[in-house]
Design brief:
By secondary structure, the chain is α/β, with parallel strands linked by helices. It has helices at residues 17-29, 37-40, 48-59, 66-83, 92-101, 114-123, 147-156, 170-178, 211-221, 244-251, 267-285, 333-347, 362-371, and strands at residues 4-7, 105-110, 132-135, 163-167, 182-186, 201-203, 227-230, 234-238, 288-294, 300-311, 315-324, 352-358, 374-376, 387-393. Helix 1 (17-29) crosses helix 4 (66-83).
Length: 398
């Protein structure tokens, strides 16, 4: 279960990497050293000590040159006085508010000195969101080693498996992976061309990122079933392996005969294929068939979801399907679940949503009408003659 979210500061909370490079550039320029950005770039997300090793390698600077570090700090103070602190990343304060309201414990684990972390978070009024501030200078090994993240989790009283990291640098993403923590990378163009491939997911801004999205990243990283959406009576979540027998029981009911897809494979094959289905449909496509649970009883009462399909001439469509256990029909559950799913699909940016319904299946035809679907003149190759195709425009008239 996700409990703690750990933020890097530089490049994630504040847009500081151009500022830091300028500080070092001016400091070294006074020493007659003109630092190349390609030399500086590998230290992004790491500590001053790591940069001193790079300066020693490329410019023969003594790694123990404390005077240089003092000169850098003096230059940094001067530039802050002249220019102010680097600006907040757009929408990050609203993002922190959403996460705090969702009940997560938040912390900062930055390679910057602790005093600087405190000053920045206080200056921008975001210190109140964080339970702990941790500096990479207090651990033995800097990022890309996992030390600072592991220490932060320990201070929070959490295991690494209960934490998710938000990073913008290659070093930070590698450190999160080494710590065994889920990692969401924020692509910050001002942080230089960073290789963020070790992160589990990548975002380009925080405006629309909410706690549900973060929770889904965490669940997919740990191969747990993520919540898709919910209504007053229903919870709709991804399947897990143990759900498959119940799913097959519902699909094999005699009254499910009018459905497009029934039990396609034996239980043993369904179980064997589930891991591949989970990785492809849930984690890669962010679609799939999901469980419908009645909140009051916690019982699985059906399945519903959307899947990408190839239709005639390899036309790619997103198709809606559902199935409700016969004991739970005629209570409005199908409409309630499908309506929530249609709204979720709209939020995810779908263009059109399709469904296929047998002409004799009057309950499903009426449900499609209520959901805003319209019958179209289209026949899918391989379907029986009595199979109708219905379509819903997700964003107005197209």
């Amino acid at each position: 279960m996700l409990k703690g979210i750990i933020f890097d500061m530089d490049g994630v909370l504040i847009n500081s990497e151009p500022f830091h490079f300028q500080v070092w550039k001016e400091t070294l320029k006074a020493r007659g050293i003109h630092i190349d950005y390609e030399v500086y770039k590998p230290c992004i997300g790491s500590t001053v000590g790591f940069l001193m090793e790079l300066l020693h390698e490329h410019y023969q600077v003594d790694v123990q040159d404390t005077a240089l570090i003092a000169e850098m700090k003096s230059m940094k103070k001067k530039m802050i006085e002249e220019r102010g602190y680097p600006s907040l990343i757009p929408w990050v304060k609203e993002f922190l508010e959403r996460l705090q309201e969702a009940g997560y414990v938040l912390a900062v684990a930055s390679s910057s000195p602790l005093s600087y972390i405190r000053n920045v978070t206080e200056h921008w009024g975001i210190d109140r969101y964080f339970q702990k501030l941790v500096s990479g200078e207090t651990v033995k090994h800097p990022k890309p080693a996992p030390d600072v993240f592991l220490k932060t989790a320990e201070i929070l009283g959490l295991s690494p498996e209960e934490c998710l990291v938000i990073e913008d640098s290659e070093n930070g993403c590698k450190a999160a992976k080494a710590a065994g923590m889920a990692c969401m990378a924020y692509y910050n163009p001002d942080s230089g061309k960073q290789d963020l491939s070790t992160a589990f997911a990548l975002v380009e801004g925080f405006e629309e990122v909410d706690s549900a999205f973060v929770e889904k990243i965490y669940c997919h990283f740990h191969h747990l079933p993520a919540k898709v959406c919910e209504t007053n009576r229903l919870l709709i979540r991804e399947m897990e392996k143990g759900d498959i027998p119940r799913m097959m029981e519902i699909c094999s009911q005699e009254t499910s005969a009018d459905a497009c897809e029934g039990v396609a494979k034996p239980l043993k094959e369904e179980l064997e294929d589930f891991e591949m289905y989970r990785r492809y449909m849930y984690e890669l496509c962010d679609m799939g068939y999901w469980c419908i649970l009645e909140k009051a009883s916690g019982e699985i009462i059906g399945r519903a979801g959307v899947e990408p399909k190839l239709w005639n001439d390899n036309k790619t469509v997103v198709e809606l399907g559902y199935m409700i256990d016969e004991k739970f029909r005629r209570r409005g559950f199908a409409y309630e679940a499908c309506r929530a799913i249609v709204e979720e699909v709209k939020k995810r940016g779908a263009f059109y949503l399709y469904c296929r319904i047998k002409s004799a299946n009057m309950p499903s035809l009426e449900l499609a009408r209520k959901l805003g679907f319209q019958k179209i003149d289209y026949h899918l190759e391989g379907d029986s003659e009595d199979m109708e195709v219905w379509r819903c425009a997700c964003h107005g008239n197209h």
